[in-house]
Amino acid sequence: MRVSEGTARVIGLSKIRLDAFPTTAYIMVGEKCRRGCSFCTQSIRSDSRRDYLSRVTWPEFDDDSVAAGIARAYGEGSLKRACLQVVDSKEGMAAVQEVLKKLKAANDIPVNASVYITSIEEADELFELGVDTISLPIDVASKELYSDIKGGSLDRLLDIIYGLAEKYPGRINTHLIAGLGETEQEMIKLIYDLHRHGVSVALFAFTPVRGTPMEGRGQPHIGSYRRVQISRYLLVNGLASFDDFVFKDGVLVDIKGKKEIMELLKDGKAFMTSGCPDCNRPYYNERPGGTMYNYPRPLTKDEALEAICESGLFEVDMR
């Protein structure tokens, strides 16, 4: 099995130094993706190393050693769940089934599968195999850009996601990547729609990786990312509605009730890694010492105030 470098460290198969430890075991399933996503290292259009996904390396280890290490870490409480990053390859469901069999034989850790599927029946099969939740990554929030960047139809994918959310309440989630050319308004509106349908949303910042068609594109401006993070946090926690947001030319410029909202943001939770419970994805979008898009841990008071200030929506006293 291939696991993220951080996962390897937590389960005792690597001695790499980490500033933050993952609380989810990340496992890559399959190789040589058949899809052509312009941002992805595993894409058929990518010349990147095959042991990369985003900016994270995924070393390969003996299956039994990985399963045993995950079982031990789960028993000790250092891991809370496992996430299968399923590459759309010819191995498909057979590879997922094999990994699940080994994991479930060793322990009862909850398992999420992040996977490309084209029908509700394929999701039915995954649940029958033993996954607890399924992530269907949307990634691109703009309908105009979706087909160019990922191929296919965003409307078609949303139909599947909403159908699954109705059939399996609380068990369907998705990923969105900020910085692919969408407007803040497009991103926030999609988050709102997904939440209304009961779909959990994990927010990522675009990360350029050498060898991909989008390697020359920069990461999103931190102010824009903070505004999307704040909006997501308010929406999914029932603290604001879409009508409370004010946009100008696609940019979020104001939120109704800002004084009260700022107080709600001071705990910093809006700026932590979002998505599945206990998924913190350390440095998936960041380099140690660089701009922190998603914090993998609770923020300090000063970090939270700085993040609020970066949004450009609030007057913040940093004294």
TrEMBL record:
UniProt-recorded Gene Ontology molecular function terms: 2 iron, 2 sulfur cluster binding; 4 iron, 4 sulfur cluster binding; biotin synthase activity; metal ion binding
Quote the pathway field: Cofactor biosynthesis; biotin biosynthesis; biotin from 7,8-diaminononanoate: step 2/2
One record GO biological process:
biotin biosynthetic process
Annotated Pfam families: Radical_SAM
Catalytic function, reaction form: (4R,5S)-dethiobiotin + (sulfur carrier)-SH + 2 reduced [2Fe-2S]-[ferredoxin] + 2 S-adenosyl-L-methionine = (sulfur carrier)-H + biotin + 2 5'-deoxyadenosine + 2 L-methionine + 2 oxidized [2Fe-2S]-[ferredoxin]
Q: Broadest EC class?
A: transferase
| Keywords carried by this UniProt record | 2Fe-2S, 4Fe-4S, Biotin biosynthesis, Iron, Iron-sulfur, Metal-binding, S-adenosyl-L-methionine
Radical SAM core domain: residues covered: 19-243
Signal peptide (from-to): none
Q: Does S-adenosyl-L-methionine count among this protein's keywords? A: yes
**SMART domains, per database record:** Elp3 (SM00729)
For this protein, the record's Gene3D superfamilies field holds:
Aldolase class I
Enumerate the InterPro entries for this protein: Aldolase_TIM, Biotin_synth/BioAB, Elp3/MiaA/NifB-like_rSAM, rSAM, rSAM_sf
Task: List the protein's name.
Answer: biotin synthase
Could you tell me which species this protein originates from?
Answer: Calorimonas adulescens
